[in-house]
Amino acid sequence: MKIAIIGGGAAGFFSAISTKTNYPEADVTIYEKSDKLLAKVRISGGGRCNVTNGCTSINELCKAYPRGGKNLKKAFHVFNTTHTKEWFELRGVPLKTEDDQRVFPTSNNSESIVDCLMNEVKKLEIKIRLGSSIKEIIEVDDQIQLSFDKSNTKLFSKVIIAAGGSPKRKGLEWLETLGHKIINPVPSLFTFNIPNNPITKLMGLAVENTLVNIQGTKLKSSGPLLITHWGMSGPAILKLSSFGARDLSDMGYHFKAQVNWVNEPNNDIVMNQLRSIGVDHGKKLVTNMRPFQLPERLWLVFLNKSEIPLNKVWGELSKKSLNKLVSTLTNDIYEVRGKTTFKEEFVTCGGVSLDSINLNTMQSKVCKHLYFAGEVIDIDAITGGYNFQAAWTTGFIAGKLG
């Protein structure tokens, strides 16, 4: 039995390993169009490889996927975050779970994960062919024919597509031609560009507990926010970009973000805290007493925005000044114009529709010898190791060739 795996990334490798484990006599080959293997694994997590997440509740795990979460529930019962950790640790890669639940190799080096996968492929005698781009895929009798160019075609018993996400629909047309429904791809997991805004002078500064809304929508997200030299990033922004990927694309990435810097939707609570400072520390300068443990440089920006002189003492603040300060802390508006890819990671929303795939087996509903794994499917997640988990899970199941 000859089996082709299309794609030399995380899902491709895991699919190949799963296939060969389930069918030891099969002839399994990974075909990668570029000259690099496991490229995203190498750069993930700043070169440390955020291999999965520490979440052990399948219900909670599913919530991390704006697209495909509910559909993955059965799949996660088959192979989930606990299985992933066991799989790598059994193969000599100790892992650690950080405070934010991201899981990394203890070595803090993605090469530990790359080496593990490469060694497993070598041990199982799985072949690898680099520079192998698929031009056409067709059904021939009871097999699948892959065309690499006009003079190079091969027949396979089964094919697993793990080619990754495509930034444009054109990159998925070869699968649409077979009859698969394609969901238009758009970027997910990106940061917000806020050009020419003074806030960018505070680049590198992080606020641990914010609430961010997109005006005119129901989109909102809470968590840490990082100010960058081009705008805003951090978990709160990345989560928002993931859940709002399609809406923000429709807006042309031109919208207004409302930042509640203290993550307190009740303005009365914020006002009461400011008033209590005025009562308890009335003679202290406003610059020397910061509420909500806000960073000093950011607090000075808020005072300027609220037109409060830096030589004022807390006891002298008028009701008007306090109202302005509350508004700045809870309803700070930024005009977003554009996006930037998060680090070097590229995630798409869209791909082969879940309507075209049996998620119990990852088998195509229109081509019985074809299977799918990884980001080519219309499944994507927030940052935190969840996208890799989807790759491991779908690859593991696809390799059963059920």
Summarize the structure in words.
This protein has 402 residues and is of the alpha+beta class. The protein has two domains: 2-186 and 343-398, FAD/NAD(P)-binding domain (3-Layer(bba) Sandwich), CATH 3.50.50.60; 191-341, no CATH class. 31% of the residues lie in helices and 26% in strands. It has helices at residues 10-22, 39-47, 58-62, 73-78, 81-90, 111-123, 173-176, 235-243, 245-250, 267-280, 296-305, 319-330, 386-398, and strands at residues 2-6, 27-32, 52-53, 95-97, 102-105, 127-130, 136-140, 143-149, 152-156, 158-161, 182-188, 190-193, 206-214, 220-227, 231-233, 254-260, 332-337, 339-341, 347-352, 357-358, 363-364, 370-372. The strands form six sheets. A seven-stranded antiparallel β-sheet has the order 17-16-13-14-15-12-18. A five-stranded parallel β-sheet has the order 6-2-1-10-22, covered by helices on one side. A three-stranded antiparallel β-sheet has the order 3-5-4. Helix 1 (10-22) packs parallel to helix 6, helix 1 (10-22) packs parallel to helix 13 (386-398) and helix 10 (267-280) packs across helix 12 (319-330). The longest helix is centred in the C-terminal third of the chain and has 14 residues, at 267-280. The protein is elongated and about 85 Å long. The model has no long low-confidence stretch (mean pLDDT 96).
